[in-house]
Design goal:
- This protein is an alpha/beta fold and about 250 residues long.
- The protein has a single domain, classed as Metal-dependent hydrolases (TIM Barrel, Alpha-Beta Barrel).
- The chain contains ten helices and ten strands.
- The strands form two sheets. Strands 1-2-3-4-5-6-7-8 form an eight-stranded parallel β-sheet.
- Helix 9 packs across helix 10.
- The structure holds zinc ion (ZN).
- The site of zinc ion (ZN) has 5 residues, from loops.
Length: about 250
């Protein structure tokens, strides 16, 4: 995959929720890591990646849906799909201890099953993880299961973990919410530039802001301001970080 034609990177987007017209427009200058939430959206994302070759498709089981809209049968089916397809990316997966505490045990079981499949099959896909309220727990498991590549999506975890994420060769993605919410800026100020990616989590509605790949350009400009760094330096570093990820994928 050649990514030098892209100006921007969206490292976490629910692309299957958009129309083909929108997908066509976004993918013109944004390289998109297309995550999925369940069996249906994983299958759809794989199909989209047949049409739009330059996206990175994922198979996922969203922690918010586990134990609610996703039942045991669907969990099994999706894990079988991972084993069969050997995807380049697994996500959105993870554990959310903040907003879904009532399904925590089941989320952990599912995440552990996914990690076991990855380890047993000797795959080295990108793990696109959601780890709200469980940053260290998820980080420790990724290390334990020898995961080679991981992106901590919408990172709002502890500052001290950033160094460990860097040492492990993992990445974090910064969400446009940093532009609207002061508490999300702290990470942007502190994170080493060589682990930073940009993401939209589109089309999620964050406090009235509809997130989309269209916001990435503004986000990069904002990052330049916050870090007192040239915007082009930041934009190019994000492209370089992405090239680094793509080089390291084995599937
Ligand atoms: Zn998401």
């Amino acid at each position: 995959m050649r990514i030098d034609k892209y100006e921007y990177v969206d490292a976490h987007c629910h692309l299957y929720e958009y129309s083909s017209k929108e997908i066509e427009r976004f993918t013109e200058n944004v390289l998109i890591f297309a995550v999925a939430d369940d069996f249906g959206s994983s299958s759809l994302t794989l199909k989209i990646s047949q049409v739009y070759k330059n996206i990175i498709p994922g198979i996922g089981l969203h922690p918010w849906e586990i134990g609610s809209s996703i039942n045991q049968e669907e969990i099994d089916k999706t894990i079988e799909l991972i084993a069969r397809v050997k995807p380049v990316m697994i996500g959105e997966v993870g554990v959310d201890a903040k907003f879904r505490e009532h399904t925590l045990e089941l989320q952990k079981q599912v995440f552990l099953r996914i990690l076991s499949i990855v380890k047993e099959s000797n795959l080295q896909p990108i793990m696109n993880v959601h780890a709200l309220g469980s940053w260290e727990y998820v980080f420790n498991l990724l290390v334990k299961y020898d995961v080679n590549l991981a992106i901590f999506h919408w990172y709002t975890g502890p500052i001290h973990l950033l160094k460990e994420i860097e040492a492990q060769g993992y990445f974090i993605s910064i969400n446009p919410s940093a532009m609207f919410q002061k508490k999300h800026r702290r990470i942007l100020e502190k994170a080493p530039l060589d682990i930073i990616l940009t993401e939209s989590d589109g089309p999620y509605n964050y406090r009235g802001h509809i997130l989309s790949p269209d916001l990435i350009k503004d986000l990069v400009e904002f990052m330049g301001k916050v870090r007192s760094e040239d915007i082009e330096v930041i934009r190019k570093q994000i492209i370089e970080n992405t090239e680094n990820i793509i080089r390291r994928i084995k599937y």
